[in-house]
Amino acid sequence: MLQGLLKSTPRLSEPGVQVEGQRCGLVAIVGKPNVGKSTLLNALVGQKISITSRKAQTTRHRITGMHTQGATQFVFVDTPGFQTLHGNALNKSLNKAVQGAVSDVDLILLVVEAGSFTPADARVLALLGKDIPTILVANKLDNIHRRGDIAPWLQEMQQKHAFAEFVPMSAKNPKDVERLLAVCEGFLPEQAWWYGEDELTDRSEKFLASELVREKLFRLTGDELPYTSTVVIDKFEEEPPQRKGQKRLLRIAATIVVERDGHKAMVIGDKGERIKRIGMETRVELEKLADAKVFLELWVKVRSGWADDAARVRSFGYE
Ligand SMILES: Nc1nc2c(ncn2[C@@H]2O[C@H](COP(=O)(O)OP(=O)(O)OP(=O)(O)O)[C@@H](O)[C@H]2O)c(=O)[nH]1
């Protein structure tokens, strides 16, 4: 499991020597779909490493992002939205990933929307043990117009769980994000850092490529496309720069897998306009993130019912 790996294999490129006062620890970010977990992770890390979209359930993998500030290194774990509506194989795999993510961390951030606590939030809370300190992050505070309304709600929240702290905030407000980091710091154990100071994620460029295609796919198809559509990377090859001063080249081929012919037409768009745009926007962003030249080929395939088929879910990379 990734967390186990992180704990047992500190990077040797780091001095690895305990500098006095150095802190380092794992922080899990949990919450039902669409509460802003990915937005928060990106803000905490300071760069985009997890995709965000208005469509619920866009985060399917655990993503770690690191942030090193002062003497402290935060290692964040993003989790899939806790999906409670369907019991298909994809969702079972998602729920297992959430439980795995919270079992072995130093701190949990339970993200909810400020002023709201639905049965879906309660189901996520029920997954959290009592032993790991948990901060209630009341996100999207900017949507609450009368701040006075939040005090009685916070009091209600105190009855739900022995939260270590309450942080009403907006993931889109950098000052709030700084405040949250300061609150988290005190919960991390004193130990040597696991990563270099500048490292942001341990996810591969191949993974980031598939995440970017998925993000553009959902952004550009709006609410029409079901979340069961996914992206598989068929080819990922790297060529060194041809001449000095040139960038290396990434040759990528990816397939967007959808459930119906109608969805395929939707992804391709009128005269191929939409898929062209998905490809173009992915390429531009990946070139920036990877600091490389990117050739990207995109395909669309129909595989009906894949989200109900456990073997296929595994073959697409969801444990
Ligand atoms: N107004 C407001 N919107 C926010 C805030 N944080 C996130 N959002 C929006 O909420 C939506 C969902 O955000 P995500 O970060 O994708 O949510 P998530 O919890 O990771 O979602 P899943 O991947 O479905 O689990 C996006 O449209 C964000 O722009 C906030 O502080 N204020």
From TrEMBL:
Domain KH type-2: 246-304
Location of the region described as G2 in the Swiss-Prot/TrEMBL record: 57-61
Protein's cellular compartments: Cytoplasm; Cell membrane
GO cellular component: cytosol; plasma membrane
GO molecular function: GTP binding; GTPase activity; ribosomal small subunit binding; small ribosomal subunit rRNA binding
Binding positions for GTP per the UniProt entry: 31-38, 78-82, 139-142
Transmembrane segments: none
Keyword Membrane: yes
Record's keyword terms, sorted: Cell membrane, Cytoplasm, GTP-binding, Membrane, Nucleotide-binding, Ribosome biogenesis, RNA-binding, rRNA-binding
Pfam families linked to this entry: KH_2, MMR_HSR1
Membrane topology: Peripheral membrane protein
Described function: An essential GTPase that binds both GDP and GTP, with rapid nucleotide exchange. Plays a role in 16S rRNA processing and 30S ribosomal subunit biogenesis and possibly also in cell cycle regulation and energy metabolism.
Family: Belongs to the TRAFAC class TrmE-Era-EngA-EngB-Septin-like GTPase superfamily. Era GTPase family.
Subunit and interaction comment: Monomer.
Protein name: GTPase Era
Species in which this protein is naturally found: Rhodoferax lacus
